[in-house]
Amino acid sequence: MTPISTEIDQLYISHLNELQVRYESALSTVEADGFLIASGELIETFLDDQTYPFKVNPHFNQWLPITDNPGSFVVFRPGCKPVLLFHQADDYWHKPPADPSGFWVREWDIRTISSFGEVSDCISDLVAPVFIGAEHDLATALGIEQINPTPVLDALHFDRSYKTEFELGCIQLANNTAVEGHLAAKAAFEQRLSEFDIQHCYLKAIRHREQSTPYPGIIGLNENCAVLHYQHYETTPPDEFLSLLIDAGACQYGYAADVTRTYAANPGRFQELVNAVDEQQQAIIDDIEPGINYMQLHEKMHLRVCDLLKQFNLINMSPEAMLENDISRTFLPHGLGHMLGLQTHDVAGFQQSRQGANLLPDEKSPALRLTRNIEERQVFTIEPGIYFIPSLLSDLRDSKSGKDVNWLEVEKLIPYGGIRIEDNITIKDGNVVNLTRNAFANTSS
Ligand code: GLY
Ligand code: MN
Ligand code: MN
Fold it and tell me: What is the pLDDT of residue 2?
């Protein structure tokens, strides 16, 4: 097995060097002499002084492991040590951030700012900077004209698909953390706790507050497992426990893990189907090789799902005929997976070149988020599933294929909701590396 180094403090300098090369190259796509990259601002809710949870600008976060400091900026000038304008307000309502510390600070020229008004002086030597961030008004106030220029973002987004060793280490660590949470959640399910309590066991195990997770954790019991992005946490346990689908991640310095497991409460048909989906998920991963197109894996996943529908006596048709009639799309309406990194659904899943040419999926797979060839150092998910979604089943019942469905068997599975198994994968030195199963293998339980 190809190891992923998690000695990330030793990998940071080469990560920073790589970023400087990428940014210099992106700069050459426009007439500009440097970058101002905003961490982001707190946004107030309508007519209130409360703010939405802060989400850092991923372009800022890629430079340094700061995810919780609005009002800061990175200034990058080609050939110069990068500058961090570190926001440290004099504020007795909130606790100002501590002075920067850790493995990364030596590589930076750090200047503390207490307000946005100080930024202008810090970039006065730049004649035509590029601004990267959501705050157009701030950029305009500084007289910056080039705000998120498309050729620059296209280049930076494409480059983000190729993770540095530092980034691979962060995503491995995020997986290690997420797996601790998954084990705690499984134990909570076995104790027959509610969705809400399972979620809290998960968060406690990963030592994240809810807003620090890369995406809202999906904790579905029974028929809620059929809701692809189920967003509630029932506080009361159901009368009967059938199944748990948990899709929950963790972050390391802003890099995400995105992991799903499904459990049956008791042995039986649903447990057998979980095992079968798990086997197929690993078979898909076995099919991965550098250069293969992701859409090919996605289409083959549909054939695999058709095989399972046949094997479990749910549809009376050959798998090939099922594929022809789009039957599997009722049971699996999402894509095989997506790029993963600073964002859970990371950028550039359709982008075929640094210049930004996009290849969209065909109309049969509108939810597919990745159409590229798989290459070294990309990180992506493989997350097949089978769901029993009442509205889609009702459409199938009304279609010409409705008569070919073994409704008695399908209806027995509706109360279990569905199954998804999701791992995070990369290619390292020509080998497929499963960051998620690495993490499960390394836990003592
Ligand atoms: N957790 C969202 C997804 O798997 O895409
Ligand atoms: Mn995912
Ligand atoms: Mn997920």
Answer: 73
Taking the centre of ligand 1 as the mean of its atom positions, its distance from the CA of residue 35, in whole angstroms, is 32
Answer whether 350 contacts ligand 1 (Cβ < 6 A).
no
Cross-strand pairs, 74: 37, 84
Tokens of 332: 């699996």
- What is the amino acid identity at position 69? N
| DSSP H stretches of helix in 360-441 | 390-398, 407-413, 435-441
In this structure, are residues 76 and 35 in contact, taking their beta carbons and an 8 Å threshold? yes
Quote the tokens at residue 123. 């970039």
Q: On the CB side of 243, how many CA atoms lie within 13 Å of its CA?
A: 27
Give the residue among 210, 269, 220, 260 at the shortest CA–CA distance from 243: 220
Q: Please say whether the beta carbons of 379 and 347 come within 8 A.
A: no
As given in the structure block, the two tokens for residue 421 are: 């198994």
**Mean pLDDT, 10 residues at a time, the chain of 445 residues:** 88 98 97 97 97 98 98 98 96 94 98 97 97 98 98 98 98 98 98 98 98 98 98 98 98 98 98 98 98 98 98 98 97 98 98 96 95 98 98 98 98 98 97 98 78
In the chain, helix, strand, coil percent, each to 5?
40, 20, 45
Closest ligand 1 atom number to CA of residue 383: 4
SS (H, E, C) 98-116: CCCCCCCHHHCEEEEECCH
Q: Is 422 in the pocket of ligand 1 (CB under 6 A)?
A: yes
Q: Is the CB of 258 under 6 A from ligand 1?
A: yes
Ligand 1 and 307: CB distance under 6 A: no
pLDDT at 283: 98
With a 6 A CB cut-off, is 247 part of the ligand 1 pocket? yes
Within 10 Å of residue 445's Cβ, how many Cβ atoms?
A: 9
Separation between Cα atoms, residue 259 and residue 199, nearest integer Å: 14
Kindly state the DSSP code that residue 326 receives in the 8-state scheme: T
Q: How far apart are the first and last CA of the chain?
A: 21
Top mutation candidate among 225, 258, 380 for ligand 1, by most atoms within 8 Å of CB: 258
- What's the predicted TM-score (pTM) here? 0.97
